[in-house]
Amino acid sequence: MPRRLRALAAWAADFEGYFPADLTLEDKYWNWKIPIHMSMVEGKQATPDLKRQCAQHLIDAAQHLRLARPEHALDCRVVAAICVPGMFSSEICIYADLEYHRGHIPASDSEYVETGRSLSLEWGLVLPQGMGERGLRYEVEGWDGQYYHEERWYFGEVD
């Protein structure tokens, strides 16, 4: 696993100084899924520390994008979205369209339930200055017709 964690750290570091130059309002958003093997964050091998490290690299990558954002893109919102327990679907998103952003991160009076917790405190994640946190609990229908609870944690510009 150390080799895979180093690769993930290098991936996050590659965002330093990078912001997509051709992002337009028509794009609505760009995203990058977490580039790891599923077993790192789901299943028997997925230890709490491994999940924490993967989440931290997503947060770090989102921060690099935030810092590299040019003035003409100040209205864009950058977030790291961490899904629990289905962490393999976690991603970094840049929202060029604010309404689309608000549709993905619903208002607190929506049908989604605020978790009332802090994943950063629970997992020992380091949030850079200016980065917010918001956790929502969803009920999702699985392929088997059963309903499951999932949490989606947003780190970054969650307004």
UniProtKB/TrEMBL annotation:
From which lineage does this chain's organism come? Bacteria, Pseudomonadati, Pseudomonadota, Gammaproteobacteria, Pseudomonadales
State the name under which the record lists this protein.
DUF3916 domain-containing protein
InterPro entries cross-referenced by the UniProt entry = DUF3916 (IPR025075)
